[in-house]
Design a protein that fits this description.
- The chain has helices at residues 14-34, 38-52, 95-105, 113-122, 136-144, 155-162, 222-228, 230-239, 244-257, and strands at 2-7, 71-77, 83-89, 110-112, 169-174, 180-186, 207-209, 215-220, 264-269, 275-279, 283-289, 294-300.
- With 301 residues, the chain is α+β, with helices and mostly antiparallel strands.
- It has a single domain (2-300), classed as Glutamine Phosphoribosylpyrophosphate, subunit 1, domain 1 (4-Layer Sandwich).
- A hairpin with a 5-residue loop joins strand 2 (71-77) and strand 3.
- Helix 1 (14-34) packs antiparallel against helix 2.
- The two termini are 18 Å apart.
- The structure holds aspartic acid (ASP).
- Aspartic acid is lined by residues 5, 56, 166, 168, 186, 188-189, 198-200, 206, 219-222.
């Protein structure tokens, strides 16, 4: 299962349809890995989406307030609870690949900034130049029109009026052994403060995977998702006996209590292959694939 963000899009435009098509391709490509390893499948799906440049992740990362690109990503193995994550990387077109290498290192979980860039240099995953932001002038225009006042005022209240799409990407998968995995990748919120870390590289917040619970990947304003550790919350509800769909619904209700400025979206699955998509935004982009073919796509309202 993959997602391409949850948002306030009203109509299904050609750009959204294009993104849905890229999601479908990513899912089909990653399905070749899923029988053997849910972890590999999640990495491959998210790397595909990062490389596509059409989402707010990897090559498509949105700009920070300084006009730079700072990317976050994380991946988790539900069998071992091993995690690898990176934050604020500026020269890594596919941060999920770097996160996976860090997971394999064992003994370190989250590496940020220049050290993470240098690890990427060492492993041949870095570009020589910093990545260039996508649509900087578009966001600067919004800023000039007073639509991004969160840089000076109450950040959450202004997000409520923004309504721009959250195009973070994520994947969850289960393999033939019943092992689950989850991954997440983002450029974060547009014109975010440089150095700001959202939920996407934080295990338990933006993503989580536990064979005894669930694999979950979230999207939405990180400052809300982090406070409730949403991905872990869903997994723990399942581990304690709730149905997957109920667990997602209850977790999103908890988010609503915090009055999020924009909605939250998530995809989830458990080791028996049950799947769930839940969101409080008007729509969410996702694709569900079983071992043979795509079973469901959603530009879901
Ligand atoms: N969760 C991401 C963040 O807050 C944004 C998103 O999902 O689009 O960094």
């Amino acid at each position: 299962m993959v997602h391409g963000g949850a948002g306030t899009w009203r109509k299904s435009t050609s750009a959204l349809k294009r993104r849905l098509e890229v999601l479908r391709k990513a899912c089909c490509y990653a399905s070749e890995f899923v029988q053997e390893s849910a972890l590999d499948a999640c990495e491959e799906a998210v790397a595909f989406l990062e490389e596509s440049g059409v989402f707010n992740a990897g090559r498509g990362g949105v700009p920070t307030a300084a006009g730079t690109v700072e990317l976050d990503a994380g991946i988790m193995d539900g069998r071992t609870l091993a995690v690898g994550a990176v934050s604020c990387v500026t020269r890594v077109p596919s941060p999920i690949r770097l996160a996976r290498r860090i997971l394999e290192l064992k003994g370190v979980i989250l590496v940020v900034g220049e050290t993470a860039n240098k690890l990427a240099d060492m492993w041949g995953l870095a570009s020589s130049e910093p990545l260039r932001p996508k649509r900087f002038s578009y966001y600067v225009r919004k800023l000039e029109h007073g639509e991004l006042g969160y840089l000076t005022k109450d950040i959450l209240e202004v997000f409520r009026h923004l309504g721009y799409p959250l195009e973070t990407v994520g994947a969850v998968a289960v393999d033939k052994e019943g092992n689950v995995a989850a991954a997440c990748s983002t450029g974060g919120l547009a014109l975010k403060m440089p150095g700001r870390v959202g939920d996407s590289p934080l295990a338990g917040a933006g993503f989580y995977a536990d064979n005894r619970g669930a694999a979950v990947s979230c999207t939405g304003v990180g400052e809300v998702i982090i406070r409730l550790a949403v991905a872990h919350l869903v997994s723990e509800y399942v581990r304690m006996g709730r149905r997957l769909s109920d667990a997602c619904r209850i977790a999103l209700q908890r988010c609503d209590e915090l009055r999020p400025p924009l909605g939250i979206g998530l995809i989830a699955l458990d080791s028996r292959g049950n799947t769930a998509v839940a969101h409080t935004t008007p729509r969410m982009l996702y694709v569900i694939h079983d071992v043979r073919s795509v079973v469901k796509t959603g530009l879901r309202a």
